[in-house]
């Protein structure tokens, strides 16, 4: 049987940063109000496209793995903020990487997107159809933000993360997973004025983002907990066997609730929501990279991950890490310089939303 070992990892965080105090200058809120409810202290905003974020993260992952782009059989991009719908964003990433001949595909499961995409790419390797893939999760969530809606305006951020998967005879990589969707409640997390359902000849304006926080909280905790239990059963593992928990970074209270339900110690839980906010599909990809960078992921580690997103999608995964926790080669991949502050980058959108 083939397995899909994670041999490379990389992230791309845009340099422009927006703190809670910055947001308080454009929205009726405060650092205390935001941080006490969400755990978020700052978020980053991109000055480049989703495809450019994805490319840098993917190239860093390739360099980490010591893999050249020409070796790729698949470029899979998880995103709900694509640069373009037609052609897919993955094809632009393929072009920028120079991954000639690789298949390309975008996948949208919102915040669960990275785990969904990881399952898809792993399945292709396990089936023997491909040998090498890069799975990228990249988002420009601040493009969607309606700065007239305080409750949702403070939550999101931009960024990208990626992993390289390579065929292996060793039982490594994604070894157990569970995903699903409760579409009966999809309206509680929904952008209604985007997509082909709207009249393209009328002015759309700011995003009509419906975000029912209390209901999302309850369903997120339940959905991720049940999925984790299922994955542990599949993998024949106990909670004591888990070395690292990498949960979706949507709300610190949700993370803490999942941690308590799974009875995982603080030093085993990866948390970076304070710096990045909710980057949707990119959250777990970025968090996984940082867990390795922080030394939380040791050779042979058992990693549990769970996510919950619009749809309402949910997923959980068990990943068995390999022996290597350092890059094969240093990466020179970088974003172009940004000459604007975070507030300057959102200024036009803030004015439009407040006037609309």
Number of strands: 13
Q: What is the helix/strand order?
A: EEHHEHEHEHEHEEEEHEHHHEEH
Shape: globular
Helix fraction, binned, reads 25-40%
CATH superfamily of the largest domain: Thiolase/Chalcone synthase
Biggest sheet character: 5 strands, mixed
Query: Structural class, please?
Result: alpha/beta
| Number of separate domains | 2
- Read across the widest sheet, the strand sequence of neighbours is 1-7-6-4-5
Low-confidence sequence ranges: none
Identify the CATH class of the largest domain: Alpha Beta
Mean pLDDT over the residues: 92
Radius of gyration: 19 Å
CATH topology annotation of the largest domain? Peroxisomal Thiolase, Chain A, domain 1
End-to-end Cα distance = 57 Å
The CATH architecture of the largest domain comes to 3-Layer(aba) Sandwich
Please indicate the percent range of residues in DSSP E strands (runs of 2 or more): 15-25%
If you had to describe this structure to a student in words, what would you say it looks like?
The chain is α/β, with parallel strands linked by helices and 356 residues long. It has two domains: 3-171 and 332-355, Peroxisomal Thiolase, Chain A, domain 1 (3-Layer(aba) Sandwich); 175-320, Peroxisomal Thiolase, Chain A, domain 1, CATH 3.40.47. The protein contains eleven helices and 13 strands. The chain has helices spanning 20-23, 31-38, 50-65, 89-97, 113-126, 150-153, 213-235, 252-262, 273-276, 282-293, 342-355, and strands spanning 3-12, 16-19, 42-45, 74-78, 103-107, 132-140, 158-168, 173-181, 189-191, 209-211, 244-247, 302-309, 313-320. A five-stranded mixed sheet has the order 1-7-6-4-5, with helices on both faces. Strands 8-13-12-11 form a four-stranded mixed sheet, sandwiched between helices. It has a two-stranded antiparallel sheet with strand order 2-3. The protein is globular and about 60 Å long. The model has no long low-confidence stretch (mean pLDDT 92). Belongs to the thiolase-like superfamily. FabH family. Pfam families: ACP_syn_III, ACP_syn_III_C. It is found in: Cytoplasm. It is an enzyme of class 2 (transferase). It comes from Pseudoalteromonas ruthenica.
């Amino acid at each position: 049987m083939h397995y899909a070992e994670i041999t490379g990892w990389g992230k791309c965080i845009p340099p422009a940063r927006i703190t809670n105090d910055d947001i308080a200058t454009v929205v009726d809120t405060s650092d205390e109000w935001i941080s006490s409810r969400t755990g978020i202290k700052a978020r980053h905003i991109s000055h480049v496209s989703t495809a450019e974020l994805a490319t840098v993260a993917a190239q860093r992952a390739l360099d980490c793995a010591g893999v050249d782009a020409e070796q790729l059989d698949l470029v899979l991009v998880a995103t709900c903020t694509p640069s373009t719908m037609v052609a897919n964003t993955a094809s632009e990433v393929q072009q920028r990487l120079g991954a000639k001949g690789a298949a390309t595909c975008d996948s949208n499961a919102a915040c669960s997107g990275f785990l969904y995409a990881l399952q898809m790419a792993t399945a292709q390797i396990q089936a023997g159809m491909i040998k090498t893939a890069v799975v990228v999760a990249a988002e420009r969530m601040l493009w969607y933000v309606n700065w007239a809606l305080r409750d949702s305006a403070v939550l999101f951020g931009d960024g990208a993360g990626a992993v390289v998967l390579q065929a292996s005879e060793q039982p490594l990589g994604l070894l157990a997973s569970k995903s699903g969707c409760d579409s009966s409640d999809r309206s509680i997390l929904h952008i209604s004025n985007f997509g082909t359902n709207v009249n393209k000849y009328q002015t759309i304006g700011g995003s009509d983002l419906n975000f029912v926080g209390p209901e999302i909280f309850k369903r997120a905790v339940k959905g991720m907990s049940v999925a984790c239990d299922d994955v542990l059963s599949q993998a024949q593992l106990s909670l004591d066997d888990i070395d690292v928990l990498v949960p979706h970074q949507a709300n610190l209270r949700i993370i803490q609730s999942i941690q308590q339900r799974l009875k995982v110690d603080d030093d085993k839980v990866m948390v970076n929501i304070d710096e990045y906010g909710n980057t949707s599909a990119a959250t777990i990809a970025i968090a996984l990279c940082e867990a390795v960078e922080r030394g939380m992921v040791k050779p042979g580690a058992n990693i549990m991950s769970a996510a919950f997103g619009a749809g309402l999608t949910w997923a959980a995964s068990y990943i068995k890490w390999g022996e290597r926790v350092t890059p094969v080669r240093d990466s020179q991949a970088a974003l172009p310089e940004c000459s604007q502050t975070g507030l300057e980058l959102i200024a036009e959108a803030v004015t439009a939303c407040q006037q609309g």
